[in-house]
Design goal:
Two copies of one chain form a homodimer.
Chain A lengths: L12 H15 L5 H17 L5 H16 L3 E5 L1 H6 L1 H11 L2 E4 L6 H13 L5 E2 L5 E2 L5 H4 E2 L9 E5 L3 H9 L3 E5 L6 H5 L2 E3 L3 H15 L4 H10 L2 H14 L4
Parallel strand pairs in A: 1-2, 1-6, 2-3, 6-7, 7-8
Antiparallel strand pairs in A: 4-5
């Protein structure tokens, strides 16, 4: 971000960075009206969560990294808010795990698809999928169902940050391992996920990357054991309890 | 709202109406980017609150009505989200209590001030204050401090729905009786208020009006007794406990 000059030590650094990126997203036609409202909902949950990565979310991020490293065909699904908030971080995660990047919008327009792909290219992405739209997710309306045949349609592991509940359920019914990043532990997306990460994507995406780098040299058996041991309901319950009893004191 | 045809019995009526009005607000240049994000924060808190008027909020609305009826110079402060969400309801409340309406924006531009005044006129408002800006709230930056000398500056009782914390504190320091409508019981605005109403403004504003109509024939002594008996900290604690233990079950 060329014109964002606040030092990381600033107490409101993360919040100011988020604000700056969202504004840039609006200017570029990436962030939608619904995206701004969703951003506000996220802010409220993050406030209640204490604006930090709680231990269960960190564990979920580590398990997500294991899944991505073990996958044959991992894909990171990117919508308007994800592209606005963590464009460079998504590219770095894709590089660290060999995952593909696919743009996938709830309110799909050609113009927004292209603006987002362009924004990702500016942040270093080489191949950005989603514009072919030659595959369909079963059980969804025509527009919502569109994906790339060699992208999300084929994927065995998908990361869907800030995903709509219907699509999260439909992807899960296709038998995919679904990694969801969502600040509301009670959302259908979080409830549906194989790996729910209840955390701000600004923190969660770089955290998955860091875990992926650490896990590069770990054996496949060890990664599998980590995945086996993970309890998604436990992770959701822990986030819910943090929201309930944590920062509201 | 001419083009909103969903029956009130629809289970998501309130949420769809809110969405419709916010979209209209954006089209008319009334709702800002920050307003959309604030709307999202409100949605999250309302979800946790159970999307209903809890008893302590209903009591606070009744006390607010008493204050407005007893006031010499009551003013309803209207920002972009208030104008978008409850334009007709604000006009009705002003009529029921003899309060003035004043537009007051955190991000003040002449264009938005005028668009909001126009929108309120379309919903039946006669006099809309805020454009004179010939008074100043002490202790605030120049732009944030602007109010009408014969409006908020002079007011003894002000209703400030969805108000920024700094301005809520500055108004309170001027000795005004401040009625705040805010879904976050921990916000500085809510904490500063003489009467905090932790409720969605879509429900709270008509509810104050209803109480004002019921209290028309109640004696001044009785209204004063109601005001004396009100405990703002108790109301905030009750809302916090509802958010903590209510809908999150």
């Amino acid at each position: 971000m060329t014109d964002f000059e606040i030092p990381e030590s600033h107490p409101r650094y993360e919040s100011l960075l988020t604000r700056h990126r969202i504004e840039e997203g609006v200017e570029k036609g990436i962030t939608s009206q619904q995206g701004l409202i969703a951003q506000g909902r996220g802010e409220a949950y993050d406030y209640l969560l204490g604006e930090e990565t709680i231990p269960s979310a960190d564990e979920a991020a580590r398990v997500a990294a294991s899944h991505l490293l073990l996958a044959d065909h991992p894909v990171l699904s990117v919508n308007g808010n994800v592209a606005a908030l963590v464009p460079g971080e998504i590219v770095t995660l894709a590089e660290a795990t060999g995952a593909a990047i696919e743009v996938n919008l709830f309110n799909r327009t050609k113009k927004r698809m292209e603006a987002i792909a362009e924004h990702l290219h500016e942040h270093g992405a080489r191949d950005v999928k989603g514009l072919a739209a030659d595959g369909r997710i079963p059980g969804l309306d025509h527009e919502r169902a569109k994906v790339d045949a060699d992208g999300i349609y084929e994927a065995d592991v998908v990361v869907v940050p800030l995903e709509d509940g219907d699509r999260a359920e439909a992807l899960s019914e296709m038998g995919k391992t679904e990694i969801v990043i969502d600040l509301n532990p009670l959302s259908r997306s979080a409830q549906t996920a194989s790996v729910p990460i209840v955390d701000n994507i600004i923190r969660a995406v770089p955290n998955i990357t860091e875990h992926a780098r650490e896990l590069q040299d770990v054996s496949e058996a060890e990664r599998n054991a980590m995945i086996e041991a993970f309890d998604p309901d436990g992770a959701l319950a822990s986030a819910e309890s943090q929201i309930r009893d944590g920062s509201l004191e």
